[in-house]
């Protein structure tokens, strides 16, 4: 094997690291065996050279990008399948794949099969009855059919009761008639819908016996299994170019009185009998279960994308030298600027915070799902609220810190060859999809207001909201992580109390409940956001304490520093709230600021080790700035030379336009 020459600054950073990087990787993977398994899988996938792009994706046309993505998706699926351990349960398979980012090595802009895996199959599992699962899951898991999740319409994404697609039951033929009565009823957005999927789960308003029975899921064939032509009564297409996700093949779909058999309604929850009698499920919101599942997964996806961005930015910052700190000294590494550390170390800490929170949430999700399967629904509202608020916070923070990583790389961060713009294109839609963030915060606020009322009635609160009942004053600011967590809880409690008081005040002033809610909604969403912050810091701290107790002292210290940095960063960001709701004084603020700066200094020698610990291979980072060897400038030039414009010294447009123009002949 050729010897890698590592940039000398990066090499000396690695020599400075105070902990064992491999131990950190094992910790993140959940053990040495998991690291080995993940690496074996990466080796195998990366050994398939047909999965690599010869021409950088960005130089392909829109159509070529899609065709190339499909070519790779098929091959990638087969390689993955050959590595699958059939003895793992679905729960274990997903948990074990939490640290896997290998998909990014193949697709810079995501795969056209994403929705098949992430929503179509889960919708059949969550919404299909036993026979439906038996039949459809086998076909879907074997890739005999490819599906997507078609819910959003041109006119409505958030407000599901406002969907216009109808499924009207016809008892004479025992069929549902699917129809899009208007342009705005067209399904719009589903990934893979345009040219990839031949089936989809369609969410439509069910009418039977002339009654609206709410939104229900239907499994609908949309293309012929042989010719792939759209079926009669179905209009399909692609929605066009987007900020990112351009290889996901998002599509539109309209129905013109398209008929499907009765057994195509997924009937795990609600049912329609042959004569058209509707039987409601135990809770109508179980129909929204696929969204809860994906919201839970998104938290982890955000942690991984952020780890990628911050790895690139930290390595680049160790290599890049710019300006002068002292006139007599050479140009320093930009990582030595404390402002640069302030921009980036929080990204490392945030990725850790959400990857710990994501695992915690996944285990909670699995527990509640098994209760739901046993008919126990009590914990569904809390799960919904938690999934909403953690999806919101992780997507907002990831977008901010990925963009900050890009900016921290100066001009080179603007290059597609840095892979930072594309990474931003992957994180930013998560603030919109799977429930627009403000809308989800309002759902969280709704659950908090309910909890507040339960508390006033002396009822027990769900564990994640139990702190609301803690009436004790926070007498003293001690600056410890646990003290700050309690302060965050006080903030959330205080903001909730304030918004509930305003909500009630507006109603007393004569506004309807709905108008009062709307008027109080800025404060309500702020309370929901604070509730989320309190949960994330607490989970980050307690889960790190729980899992890291057996680690070596140097690594334990490094992780504790990240937890403290994360806590202090948000305390300083939310000073106004803390000054309102906790006994924080001016001196305490100055102490916190000093401690924060001290932490930046302590983390500085470990910065490269911390991102090396994410163990994201060059093929996955896909970045001229972030490669392990730090050959930043050489790679930037190599990538520049791949531009098709560099294939010839003079472009034909010179003779056609520029020359006549400059010579006054045009
Ligand atoms: C080996 C496999 C490994 C897999 C690994 C995969 C790796 C990849 C990882 C990550 C994936 C990244 C890529 C993801 C691509 C995703 C693409 C995106 C797809 C989509 O966007 S699909 C469309 C999503 N759409 C939405 O989210 C719509 C948002 N709107 C809503 O959810 C609702 O309309 C609403 C909640 C806002 C309001 O609903 P409505 O019916 O009007 O409700 P109300 O009448 O107001 O009642 C509210 C009442 O209901 C309760 N409630 C609401 N939702 C739920 C729920 N889901 N569960 C439980 N309860 C719910 C709510 O609390 C209220 O209760 P109350 O009345 O207060 O008691
Ligand atoms: C990349 C990408 C992939 C997607 N993939 C899929 C898919 O596979 N399948 C699918 O079905 N859908 C998909 N979607 C659609 C996505 O789920 C919706 O865009 C999302 O649910 C938001 O709905 P909307 O676009 O209608 O936004 P809107 O609801 O119109 O939001 C616009 C604005 O209105 C505000 N607003 C709306 N309602 C309220 C309210 N009640 N209170 C306060 N403010 C409100 C919002 O906060 C926002 O600021 C995808 C979207 C994207 C971007």
TrEMBL record:
<dbReference type="InterPro" id="IPR046373">
    <property type="entry name" value="Acyl-CoA_Oxase/DH_mid-dom_sf"/>
</dbReference>
<dbReference type="InterPro" id="IPR002655">
    <property type="entry name" value="Acyl-CoA_oxidase_C"/>
</dbReference>
<dbReference type="InterPro" id="IPR037069">
    <property type="entry name" value="AcylCoA_DH/ox_N_sf"/>
</dbReference>
<dbReference type="InterPro" id="IPR012258">
    <property type="entry name" value="Acyl-CoA_oxidase"/>
</dbReference>
<keyword id="KW-0285">Flavoprotein</keyword>
<keyword id="KW-0443">Lipid metabolism</keyword>
<feature type="domain" description="Acyl-coenzyme A oxidase N-terminal">
    <location>
        <begin position="20"/>
        <end position="146"/>
    </location>
</feature>
<dbReference type="Pfam" id="PF01756">
    <property type="entry name" value="ACOX"/>
</dbReference>
<feature type="domain" description="Acyl-CoA oxidase C-terminal">
    <location>
        <begin position="482"/>
        <end position="663"/>
    </location>
</feature>
<comment type="pathway">
    <text>Lipid metabolism; peroxisomal fatty acid beta-oxidation.</text>
</comment>
<keyword id="KW-0560">Oxidoreductase</keyword>
<protein>
    <recommendedName>
        <fullName>Acyl-coenzyme A oxidase</fullName>
    </recommendedName>
</protein>
<comment type="similarity">
    <text>Belongs to the acyl-CoA oxidase family.</text>
</comment>
<dbReference type="Pfam" id="PF14749">
    <property type="entry name" value="Acyl-CoA_ox_N"/>
</dbReference>
<dbReference type="InterPro" id="IPR055060">
    <property type="entry name" value="ACOX_C_alpha1"/>
</dbReference>
<dbReference type="InterPro" id="IPR009100">
    <property type="entry name" value="AcylCoA_DH/oxidase_NM_dom_sf"/>
</dbReference>
<feature type="domain" description="Acyl-CoA oxidase C-alpha1">
    <location>
        <begin position="288"/>
        <end position="449"/>
    </location>
</feature>
<dbReference type="InterPro" id="IPR036250">
    <property type="entry name" value="AcylCo_DH-like_C"/>
</dbReference>
<dbReference type="Pfam" id="PF22924">
    <property type="entry name" value="ACOX_C_alpha1"/>
</dbReference>
<keyword id="KW-0274">FAD</keyword>
<keyword id="KW-0576">Peroxisome</keyword>
<keyword id="KW-0276">Fatty acid metabolism</keyword>
<dbReference type="InterPro" id="IPR029320">
    <property type="entry name" value="Acyl-CoA_ox_N"/>
</dbReference>
């Amino acid at each position: 094997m050729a010897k890698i020459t590592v940039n000398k600054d990066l090499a000396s950073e690695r020599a400075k690291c105070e902990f064992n990087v491999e131990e950190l990787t094992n910790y993140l993977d959940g053990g040495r065996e998991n690291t080995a398994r993940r690496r074996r899988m990466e080796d195998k996938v990366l050994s398939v050279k047909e999965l690599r792009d010869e021409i950088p994706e960005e130089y392909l046309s829109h159509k070529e990008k899609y065709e190339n993505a499909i070519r790779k998706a098929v091959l990638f699926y087969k390689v993955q399948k050959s590595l699958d351990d059939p003895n793992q349960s679905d729960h274990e398979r997903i948990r074990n794949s939490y640290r896997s980012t290998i998909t990014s090595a193949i697709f810079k802009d995501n795969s056209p099969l994403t929705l098949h895996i992430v929503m179509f199959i889960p919708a059949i599992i969550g919404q299909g009855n036993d026979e439906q699962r038996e039949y459809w899951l086998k076909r879907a898991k074997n890739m005999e059919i490819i599906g997507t999740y078609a819910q959003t319409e041109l006119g409505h994404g958030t407000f599901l009761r406002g969907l216009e697609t109808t499924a009207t039951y016809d008892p004479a033929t025992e069929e549902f008639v699917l129809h899009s009565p208007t342009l705005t009823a067209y399904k719009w957005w589903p990934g893979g819908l345009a040219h990839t999927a031949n089936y989809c789960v369609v969410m439509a308003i069910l009418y039977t016996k002339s009654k609206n029975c709410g939104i229900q899921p239907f499994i609908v064939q949309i293309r012929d299994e042989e010719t792939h032509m759209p079926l009669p009564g179905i209009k399909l297409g692609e929605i066009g170019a987007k900020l990112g996700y351009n290889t996901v093949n998002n599509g539109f779909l309209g129905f013109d009185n398209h008929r499907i058999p009765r057994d195509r309604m997924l009937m795990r929850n609600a049912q329609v009998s042959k004569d058209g009698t509707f039987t409601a499920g135990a809770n109508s919101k179980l129909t929204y279960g696929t969204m809860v599942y994906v919201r839970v997964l998104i938290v982890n996806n955000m942690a991984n994308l952020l780890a990628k961005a911050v790895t690139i930015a930290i390595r680049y910052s160790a290599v890049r030298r710019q300006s002068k700190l002292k006139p007599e000294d050479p140009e320093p590494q930009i990582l030595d600027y404390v402002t640069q550390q302030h921009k980036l170390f929080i990204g490392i800490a945030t990725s850790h915070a959400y990857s710990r929170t994501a695992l915690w949430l996944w285990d909670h999700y699995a527990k509640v799902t098994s209760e739901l399967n046993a008919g126990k629904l009590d914990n569904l509202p809390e799960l919904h609220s938690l999934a909403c608020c953690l999806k919101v916070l992780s997507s907002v923070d990831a977008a901010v810190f990925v963009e900050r990583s890009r900016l921290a790389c100066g001009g080179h961060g603007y290059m597609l060859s840095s892979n930072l713009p594309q990474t931003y294109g992957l994180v930013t839609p998560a603030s919109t999809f799977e429930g627009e963030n403000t809308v989800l915060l309002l759902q969280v606020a709704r659950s908090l207001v309910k909890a507040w009322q339960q508390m006033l009635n002396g009822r027990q609160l769900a564990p994640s909201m139990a702190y609301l009942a803690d009436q004790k004053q926070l007498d003293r600011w001690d600056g410890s992580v646990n003290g700050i967590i309690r302060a965050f809880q006080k903030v959330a409690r205080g903001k909730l109390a304030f918004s509930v008081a305003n909500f009630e005040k507006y109603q007393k002033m004569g506004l309807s409940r709905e108008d009062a809610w709307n008027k109080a909604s800025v404060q309500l969403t702020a309370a929901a956001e604070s509730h989320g912050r309190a949960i994330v810091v607490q989970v980050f701290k307690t889960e790190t304490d729980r899992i890291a107790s057996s680690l070596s002292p140097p690594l334990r210290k490094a992780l504790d520093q990240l937890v403290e940095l994360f806590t202090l960063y948000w305390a300083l960001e939310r000073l106004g709230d803390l000054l309102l709701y906790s006994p924080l004084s001016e001196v305490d603020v100055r102490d916190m600021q000093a401690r924060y700066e001290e932490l930046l200094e302590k983390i500085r020698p470990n910065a490269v080790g911390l991102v090396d610990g994410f163990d994201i291979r060059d093929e996955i980072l896909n970045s001229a700035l972030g490669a392990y060897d730090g050959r930043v400038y050489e790679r930037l030039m190599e990538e520049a030379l791949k531009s098709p414009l560099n294939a010839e010294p003079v472009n034909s447009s010179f003779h056609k336009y520029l020359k006549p123009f400059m010579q006054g002949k045009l």
